[in-house]
């Protein structure tokens, strides 16, 4: 069903009543007058996947497990209060996956601006959480079983993951959080931070113990967007520290770092600790200046690298100055890699300097 088509409430009700006993998946995006309570109609049935789009949910009864088989829930541009959201999750005793995309979070009386509401999300059963285009002052995930958290194009004053001892994959892409905090990292295997911005985090430098971490991708720190969230604390020291990574993540095998100009992050590769288990190293750049010196510095602290993947960005229009610098860059590359002939080298170039997310560019393999 799609909101491009207009249906009468009676016809939609008839269709749902006819199919609800055998319906396993429902993707609902319909505007009717009067509105229809899909949750009441499809409750206590065999429904396993439910997606609601441009829908309003009011007055959810707490502790009412009316969807005994549902494992996947997607709410896109759904208007719901923070209280009703948590009550709704209790209606799904087998829920494993939740997606929130462009939610309209409100208070019950709509007296507070939605972005100022603190969301404490708790569902003891779900394993995967996907957040897209969410803007909240404070977002706290309280869950003991969640395994994967995927955050895309979101803006938070504070984002915290508490009490999740089973978290294995955390991805934070093109998002902003003035405070980003993960409480438990004992089972974390993949950690990705891509083209995002933070002011305070226990990840930069690494302050949590992640003994199982295999992949750590730190792919660019973006400028701070103006989202209106006010945090009184001053900006803290944001750094990628090789000593801290080595101490906290001794099993790390895949390290990916994007070096960029400016003062957004301090890349501290020094000290006495080595990341001896890193065998795959990815390095990206947005400037020729001193790049291969940086590569050598990182390789020094990753002595067992078997494959090096270099990502670079090339403007669509190249002037004479760029071509000269590119030639010098290529010469430096050849001279550097002569020292590391045992390492397999792969070079990937994108077309445009203006991309905000190098990972999503089209890469050319040379």
Automatic annotation (TrEMBL):
A Pfam match: LRR_At5g56370
Signal peptide range in chain numbering: 1-24
Positions in coiled-coil regions: none
The F-box/LRR-repeat protein 15/At3g58940/PEG3-like LRR domain, residue ranges: 42-102
Alphabetic keyword roster: Signal
SUPFAM superfamilies linked to this entry: L domain-like
Signal recorded as keyword: yes
PANTHER family: F-BOX PROTEIN-LIKE, F-BOX_LRR PLANT PROTEIN
Entry protein name: F-box/LRR-repeat protein 15/At3g58940/PEG3-like LRR domain-containing protein
Source organism of the structure: Cuscuta campestris
